[in-house]
Structures are given as structure tokens and as C-alpha cells.
Write a structure and sequence with these properties.
Two copies of one chain form a homodimer.
Chain A lengths: L3 E9 L3 E3 L24 H6 L9 H7 L5 E7 H4 L24 E5 L7 E2 L5 E5 L3 H12 L3 E6 L1 H9 L5 E7 L7 E2 L11 E8 L4 E7 L9
Parallel strand pairs in A: 1-7, 1-8, 3-4, 3-7, 4-6
Antiparallel strand pairs in A: 2-9, 5-6, 8-11, 10-11
Chain lengths: 222, 222
């Protein structure tokens, strides 16, 4: 059965998924890049940017499997780009260049309609409005037998968590303080009761935590 | 040199130090007791309540040293008790019975004056108003050569952190979601830059994190 997953989502010790003042030059906000340093210390993180460097181990195990078994991705508009409001003036096609690393359909949440954007290598961006349940359903359709990944950002994941739509989430607790920014966990309320921790492992750099919805008795080993 | 310390302070995966609706029956709020389960699984946590049970190991190492080298404690009024407003009608003497486990001066922050309360076993509660800096200074005076512990709750620790008064803080990250409640980290702002992680260790139950102010080059091994 296909699952709705979050993988490799980093938060600071004080709970922020991005620092303050996110913009084109600081897509993760001030200080937010610290949250991803662990990725660029891994072998797979370096391969992603075409470099032959980095180490293997726990962090690399997690990051190298980021796309494994995934047939569609959902992301918030702010993860797709820094453009706000209507798209009319923009020819923005995402942060990832002409061949984005998804290689499958990507559903971008936005209140502003825009035709699908077909990129090289099998990635097509679909710009979708409406209830999160409907978007998730469309993504499952597109993914076929495969899983659907919620890529981020924090507000998109939060929306899915509050509706208890996420089956499994892999968080990376980075031992830094950002002081302010955008939180991942904010007023989950009763939906928090629907989740439990199924794995927790410290690497030398970070702590990996996996949580699963309680009805997923089949929560899979990674 | 004496230090201002926080020890064994538990927060949930979503950053809460207490659940919602704290009152006399739920001093840690709804679900908040989950944050302290790790303590009652340790040998020293059981000894604290007069029981010969619990296990040794990392968690016990931390918890058994909770009072080591401490000459005074600071706590917020809500940690002292559930009474709000003026004390006049109350004969509340704390959660800890006739012989509290501090055995040294304890400074309780309150806007409502009250004479000191001398308990058995060397604990005296002083009820103090005014700037946090002045309270910390009085506690250092009372502690002599020893360290001062900020016992909690979250808002008292936050007040000390924002003023960068805390030298070292030991946090316990408990892998549960509470959904709502009282946060430890809230708008630290620039004071976050003054701290760094100096230790992080996973036990089977929780993750221990120690942070220290950057000017504490002598951050001590535990």
C-alpha cells in the first residue's frame, strides 16, 4: 500500500525548519543553511551536487534513500521558489535548474493557477489549488504503486500532519539554535496523539527520529 | 567560578516542556507526565521517591547528578505551586512535602511578597520580585562557591536564556509529541547565537543534549 512520507526533514534544537527572513538569497532564512550541513558531509549529498566527496555512515544511509520508491512529490509554493502572488510576471521554474532531481510528477500547492511545467528528466510540476486531501489523492494517483513524498516546507508538512495524512515522517534533529524562524510543529493539537516514535538514532552530527501514524502497524524498517 | 545551570530539563519532540491545562492535578499539563517517564525508569529517580528499583546507565548518570555541586536554586512561581495571585489565602509550601529535596536556599520568582519559608532539611524558600539579573545575583551570593540551578519552569529558563545568563544547560529530548502546551524555546532571538551544543548522547529512552554559552571555554565534562 502506498504511503505518504516525509524524509530527511531537518529542524533545529529550538524547533525551526528555517531561519527568519527567507528570500531568494536565503531560501532557508538566516542561519537556516546550518540545518543542511549534515547533508553536505555525506557521500550522497555530495553526489547530488556532482562532487566525489563526503562520508558514508548513518547520515548517508538516510539521505541516499531519499527518493527510493517515491513516485510523486508534494511541495509548498515557497519550497518551489521565492515568487509570491500571481505567476504572470515570472518565468521561475524552480530552484533545481533544467533537470530537477525528482524524475516524477511534483505537485506544487498554490492559490494561483498556472499550466503544468514539463522539465527534462521526467519531472513535471503541476500547480494545484484546493483541499490538501484532494492534492494528496491526486499525488497517490500519479504515483501508482509507489509512495508519495511531502518535500516541504514546514507549513505543507504541518497541514498534512494536522489532517493525520502522513504515514511516516523522518526528522533530523540538528543540534543548533536558530533563535527564530519557521516552526515545523505548531498547534498539532489532537493529531499529535495519532503518532508515535518508531526509531531514534544518533549519528556523530545529528539525531534521526522516525515517527509513524498509530494505525501503521506495518511501519517499515528503513 | 560558579555557574548558572539547567539540568535534566525535558522537552517533547514538538518542543513543549509541559502539556496544556496545567493545574493542581496535572502540574505538567495534559500528557506532560510522559516527559518524566525516563526519570522514573532510573535508579536515582526511584530512590528519590523511596523505591529500590530502576536501572543504571546514561539516564541515571545524568539524573543522579542533578544536585551535585549546587548551592542554590531558582524557580518560577508556577513550579513552586498551582496558586496564582496573592498568597494571602494560601498555606501552600511547595509540591515537595515538609522536607523538600533541595537542602539549600531556593529563590521563587513572584510579584507577590511573602516572608521566607524555612522547611526541614536546610531548604528555605525566598519569594523574590524584580529583575532576573538581581535574582541570579542574590542566588550566586547564597550559593557561595557552588553553582546555581535554574529548576524551571520553561518561562523562567527562557527569561534567563534571553538575557544569556545561563552558562550550561542540559536538555532531555523525549521522543513524544504533545501537540500543544508550553514551549521552552520561544523567540530567543539573538541570544541563540551565544550558545553552542557541547554534547549529545542517545540513551535507549531519550536524547541528552548539553549546550553552553560560547564564552564558557571551560565547559566542563559532566
Amino acid at each position: 500500500m502506498s504511503r505518504l512520507l516525509v524524509r530527511n526533514f531537518s529542524i533545529s534544537l529550538d524547533g525551526y525548519a528555517a531561519g527568519p527572513d527567507q528570500d531568494l538569497n536565503n531560501p532557508l532564512g538566516l542561519g537556516g543553511a546550518k540545518l543542511h550541513e549534515w547533508i553536505f558531509a555525506t557521500r550522497s549529498g555530495n553526489q547530488m551536487i556532482g562532487r566525489d566527496a563526503g562520508s558514508e555512515g548513518i547520515d548517508d544511509d538516510f539521505f541516499s534513500k531519499r527518493g527510493s520508491g517515491v513516485g510523486a512529490t508534494i511541495m509548498g509554493r515557497n519550497m518551489f521558489g521565492p515568487v509570491r502572488g500571481p505567476w504572470s510576471e515570472s518565468n521561475w521554474t524552480g530552484w533545481w535548474g533544467e533537470e530537477p532531481p525528482f524524475h516524477h510528477p511534483v505537485f506544487v500547492l498554490t492559490h494561483h493557477p498556472r499550466p503544468p511545467l514539463e522539465m527534462r528528466g521526467g519531472t513535471t510540476f503541476y500547480f494545484v489549488d484546493g483541499e490538501i486531501e484532494a492534492v494528496v489523492s491526486a499525488a497517490f494517483q500519479a504515483a501508482g504503486e509507489l509512495d508519495v513524498l511531502v518535500g516541504g516546507g514546514a507549513s505543507t508538512i504541518r497541514q498534512c500532519l494536522r489532517a493525520s495524512l502522513i504515514d511516516e515522517m523522518h526528522l533530523v534533529l540538528v543540534p543548533v539554535l536558530l533563535g527564530s524562524g519557521e516552526r515545523l510543529f505548531e498547534d498539532l493539537g489532537a493529531s499529535a496523539d495519532n503518532y508515535r516514535c518508531i526509531e531514534r538514532v544518533c549519528s556523530p552530527a545529528v539525531t534521526h527520529v522516525r515517527i509513524a501514524r498509530n494505525d501503521r502497524d506495518d511501519a517499515t524498517p528503513r
